[in-house]
Write a structure and sequence with these properties.
The chain has 656 residues and is of the alpha+beta class. Helices cover 43% and strands 23% of the residues. It has a 5-stranded antiparallel β-sheet with strand order 2-1-5-4-3. The longest helix has 47 residues. The radius of gyration is 40 Å and the shape is elongated. It is found in: Cell membrane. Its EC number is 2.7.13.3. Pfam families: GAF, HATPase_c, HisKA, PAS_9, Response_reg. This is histidine kinase.
């Protein structure tokens, strides 16, 4: 018997280390280790690992033609796994062979023929747990303590590599399965090195695009890149576990708000940074809504307080002016009186916005009010703007102050006139609607809709954000007080309703006012029949809508009623789907960033004539038709819609 010299031991350990550090797959690594030991150190080598159920699983046995030593053999893997202590058999006796053969005379004969001399089995231990065993059989030598210690070190290093591989696999699994977007980028080049599925889904790029040359600058707004680079440099690539809020850019060009935490890691020997990005767009939207609501409430309180105190001053001014006018009808006093009346009008508007004016609500028929004001609106609007009304029959009554509702209509009409300097069309519509948590006010139940639409210049998001604030105006100085829409806002809110605006630059504007429907009197006509139950179907519907939330909602509503729903964001994708797949109905938004719904419908009609088409929009249907966007006979459904109204309309178009 002889034992390995120190130089040979170091050489063996170095070669084992090279194999374990080569980055090979686990099974190939174990086989390479066994090949290193056979035949130089053993005639037979086996590596057993603990399985998911705790039982030993033989992963390697070299040479394969060698009669396998059973795991439960004396001094074998089972006992080593249980005790965690190595087993050394310096001399294999006839009794040991007989016990290992378990009474199988054929196997006993095979073992005798091998002329086995010695055996050892050592645990694959990480220091805290045993993950498997390494077993060796020798025919040319007798193992000693030095051999046992050497194989113990080989086993320890192998176990550490196995555990590290398992940890990497678990980490990779957690990385990939995380519902939160995560990625790794190179600190020097800023290139993406790894991305998970959530990142691909949220940002819209494929994995190949991310890893094919993109950098983290590609998902940032261009104007914020200098700030990004400065922030990275200030941390020297170490990352920060303190959450930071940034804006990111998706492949579709949409800006999202994200909360980012980062950490420095070594990724394949490269100085890298791990990023976890939580999408907080919805939270930020709710925060902005709350901030806006608090701002409007604060402005309302201020406006109400100013109006109240100012009315006291106006009372004094007006009173003394009347006294002086009774003595002397001078022109100067007339001007003072006129200015006082104008100031009083302004304070009434401030009180309307602050919802502190005294209302005298009565049961009103909006149809009668709109019809009665049509002649007056013609005079206000002018000859170059046509006025049309579309009044629903059997309209439910509302409880509101008649004078204030008339003021609302006049203010909206005047606002529409200013938005159409070169003429256009104004449309007033009424309708009974059933709402379910609609809009920021979460309006629910039966309401009466008053929609005022124009074909004017429209407005962008920045203007819409400040539209109802007192004294906000886009007009030139001296041309308006900025209180008209603030007054409308206050009257509607004080009447228990909600007001919403739909507008795009160059596409006109629709104001939608929802007022709670009042109970009908005994002499009033009965309420219209409720909406029919949702109309189910099995056809395939392609939904084209640039707003993801609306798109997802429509898909959910239709799929729950049996339809097969496909979705698309862009016109070319929609046309391709209609030509390649069996699409029965195209449901498309009217106003979209790149291609209008009408243009898309024309392309689909040319490519797939059999596809039926249904349009939808936040603008009212009458306004859309009068804009010239759609023909009068085009199928149309107005947002917001309920599940019943949507499925009924879809069924109607498919069956027509």
């Amino acid at each position: 018997m002889h034992e390995q010299g120190a130089a040979a031991q170091l050489t063996l350990l170095a070669r084992v280390g090279a194999i374990l550090g080569s980055g090979l797959a686990r099974q190939e690594t174990l086989e390479r280790v066994a090949q290193l030991l056979v035949p130089a150190f053993a005639a037979w080598c086996a590596i057993d690992l603990e399985g998911e159920d705790g039982a030993l699983e033989r992963r390697v046995a070299l040479p394969k033609a060698f009669p396998p030593l059973p795991p439960d053999a004396p001094h074998g893997p089972a006992i080593v796994m249980r005790t965690g202590e190595p087993e050394l058999v310096r001399e294999i006796t006839e009794d040991a062979l007989f016990a290992a053969a378990r009474g199988n005379w054929g196997r006993l004969a095979e073992m005798r023929a091998l002329a086995l001399k010695s055996a050892l089995c050592v645990p694959l231990t990480t220091g805290t747990r045993v993950v498997g065993t390494l077993s060796l059989l020798a025919t040319e030598r007798h193992y000693g303590i030095a051999d046992l210690e050497l194989m113990g070190e080989v086993a320890r290093r192998t176990a550490s590599a196995i555990e590290a591989d398992r940890n990497r696999a678990n980490t990779q699994m957690l990385f990939e399965a995380s519902p939160t977007p995560m990625w790794v980028y190179d600190f020097e080049t800023l290139a993406f090195l790894a991305v998970n599925d959530a990142c691909i889904e949220r940002y819209g790029y494929s994995r190949e695009e991310f890893l094919g040359g993109m950098t983290i600058k590609d998902i940032r707004p261009p104007e914020e890149i200098p700030l990004l680079l400065a922030d990275i440099e200030s941390h020297h690539g170490a990352g920060s576990r303190v959450a930071r809020e940034w804006r990111h850019l998706t492949r579709a060009g949409k800006l999202i708000d994200v909360e980012v935490t980062t950490g420095r890691i070594d990724f394949g020997g490269r100085h890298s940074v791990l990023v976890v990005a939580h999408d907080v767009s919805e939270r930020k939207r709710l925060e902005r809504r709350l901030t806006d609501a608090e701002k409007m409430e604060a402005i309302g309180r201020l406006a109400g307080g100013v109006a109240h105190d100012f009315n006291n001053l106006l009372t004094v001014i007006s009173g003394y002016t009347e006294i002086l006018l009774a003595r002397d009808r001078g022109q100067e006093l007339e001007e003072i009186a006129r200015a006082a009346r104008q100031a009083a009008s302004l304070t009434r508007q401030l009180l309307a916005f602050s919802r502190r004016q005294v209302l005298h609500p009565t049961k009103l028929d909006l149809n009668e009010i709109v019809a009665g004001m049509e002649t007056m609106m013609h005079r206000i609007i002018g000859d170059d703007v046509s006025v049309a009304t579309r009044l629903a029959p059997d309209l439910a009554p509302v409880e509101a102050d008649r004078a204030q509702i008339e003021r609302v209509i006049l203010n909206l009409a005047a606002n529409a006139r200013d938005a159409m300097p070169h003429g256009g069309a104004l449309t007033l519509e009424t309708r009974n609607v059933e709402l379910s948590s609609h809009g920021a006010d979460a309006l629910t139940g039966p309401h009466v809709l008053l929609a005022v639409s124009d074909t004017g210049l429209g407005m962008d998001e920045k203007v819409r954000a400040h539209l109802f604030e007192p004294f906000f105006t886009t007009k030139e100085g001296g041309e308006g007080t900025g209180l008209g829409l603030a007054t409308v806002f206050g009257v509607v809110k004080q009447s228990g309703g909600g007001i919403y605006v739909y507008s795009e630059r160059g596409a006109g504007t629709t104001f939608k006012i929802y007022l709670p429907a009042a109970a009908r009197g005994e002499d009033e006509p009965p309420a219209p029949a409720g909406e029919p139950e949702p109309a189910a179907g099995t056809e395939t519907v392609l939904v084209v809508e640039d707003d993801r939330n609306v798109r997802d909602l429509v898909r959910l509503l239709l799929e729950s009623n049996g339809y097969t729903v496909l979705t698309a964001q862009q016109a070319d994708e929609a046309v391709r789907v209609c030509t390649e797949l069996d699409v029965d109905l195209l449901l498309t938004d009217v106003v979209m960033p790149e291609t209008s719904g009408r243009e898309l419908a024309e392309q689909v009609a040319a490519a797939a004539p059999g596809v039926r088409i249904l349009f939808m929009s936040g603008y009212s249907d009458e306004a859309v038709h009068r804009h010239g966007v759609l023909s009068e006979d085009a199928a149309f459904i107005e947002k917001p819609f309920t599940e019943r109204s949507l499925t009924t309309k879809v069924r109607e178009v498919l069956d027509n």
